[in-house]
Specification:
The protein is of the alpha+beta class. The protein has two domains: 120 residues, no CATH class; 81 residues, Uridine Diphospho-n-acetylenolpyruvylglucosamine Reductase, domain 3 (2-Layer Sandwich), CATH 3.30.465. Strands 1-2-5-4-3 form a five-stranded antiparallel β-sheet. A hairpin with a 2-residue loop joins strand 3 and strand 4. Helix 1 packs antiparallel against helix 2. The longest helix is centred in the first third of the chain and has 43 residues.
Amino acid sequence: MKIGQLKTRIMRMTVYLELILAFFITIGIVIGMGDLVKYLVMIFQTNPVETYEVFQKFLGHILMLVVGVELVAMLVMHTPGSVIEVLLYAVARTMLIYSKNTLDFLIGIVAIAGIFAIRRFLFVGRISNSDDINVFSATTSVPDINRYVGVNIPESLGNTIGGVVFHVSEQSCRKVEVGTTFRVADAQIRVIKLNGEVIDRVAVEEYNDD
């Protein structure tokens, strides 16, 4: 077996494992939502003096479910943005639930500000080469591609641009190689780089009939 084929099989296996993990997390989230009703009953029955502690646990439970939802999105979508969302909600939960003094709140605020700074200044979804062609990581989401390039690639074809190329290549029975070009809706997608047999980077531009 060639090393490239082995890498491809391992990559596909990791994708399936991530989907399985996302499935179990989703089940856990659904089960955990049932506890929210119990918390509401406890808040209703608890003495007003002790309500704060119960409500704090209620918020903590909700935020943990939100972190779980974002974690599922991260496992399924494979986008840098989803990782940032997980970190953001995790820090917010820690700050709101476990902060005991002003210093804890200050540290939490700085952490959240740092995450927003990363998203604003260091988050790179697009890389332009010397020919001013829009080159993207294969993990870039389809909505981001549509927004950056001004095209209308159907989101039903895949969550990421790499997934779209894989789907189209399977449908057209075309082998994915460096330089291979696919037309999808009003976009033209060209494979720029492969990591073994896994798509790493693609160039996307608006399709011109001329």
